[in-house]
Structure formats: structure tokens, C-alpha cells
């Protein structure tokens, strides 16, 4: 039996999937979303081709974390000036930019190359329950 590899030209049309992040653990959500973005849930998965679907994540502000991560987990930002390193805790980031929490977790689970940059662009995260992608008729993604 021959292994078939999908070419970029032969990749299927991208579907749209939607996930409600309310009361779902951040790590489990990020793994599932990263696999769908990469196309690992399809039988035609090919590592070097972007064959994944678009993913919409709603209610990003209600995502759950386990243990003491709400206070202990820090996000680091550096402006390239000496001594100008900033660390923001997860609970402050949840107030400022709740979308960043999920985007950061999913991006960390993808490979580090140009292909992953294209995959991250297919991730749409929204803090509330509303999203502007109703015309795409997204199908629910079970987690």
C-alpha cells in the first residue's frame, strides 16, 4: 500500500470550526485547537502542508487554569532596552487581553517555522460570546 502525500495545490477547502472556551482547561483546549489548525484530525494529514481548518474560539475570558497558575503564571515582554523587561500575571492578562492567553498557548504547541505562522493566522479568538464569522457557518468542535 502506498502512502499518499497531499500537495499544497490538492489540499481540501478549509472548513470553519468553533469552540466555546468557557470552563475548559487551557492546556486541553490548546492541544485540540493546535491539532485542528495543523490538520492532524484529518486522514490526509501531511506534515509539510497546511491542511488544517480555521478555528474560532469564543469566551476566551472564561477559560480555566488548574492549580495556582492564575497568580503564579507570568507572561514576559521585553522592549529590547536594558532593564525594560515586564512580567504580567495571568489574572492581569485575563483582564487586559484575554485573547492573548489562548493565542500564546496554541502558538507554543505548533512547530516553529513559517508554516506555523500561516496556521496561527487561521486562529480567531474572541473574549466574549459574539464573533463576526457567522457567514462561514462554523461547525462545533468537540473537546
Low-confidence stretches: none
Strand order of the largest sheet: 5-2-1-6
Biggest sheet overview: 4 strands, parallel
Shape: globular
Task: Give the CATH class.
Answer: Alpha Beta
Helix run count = 5
Per-chain topology:
Layout: E1 16-20, H1 26-38, E2 54-58, H2 69-72, E3 74-78, E4 85-89, H3 90-96, H4 98-108, H5 114-120, E5 123-125, E6 139-140
Parallel strand pairs: 1-2, 1-6, 2-5
Antiparallel strand pairs: 3-4
Structural notes for this entry:
The protein has 143 residues and is α/β, with parallel strands linked by helices. Helices cover 29% and strands 17% of the residues. It has five helices and six strands. Strand 3 and strand 4 form a beta hairpin. The protein is globular and about 55 Å long.
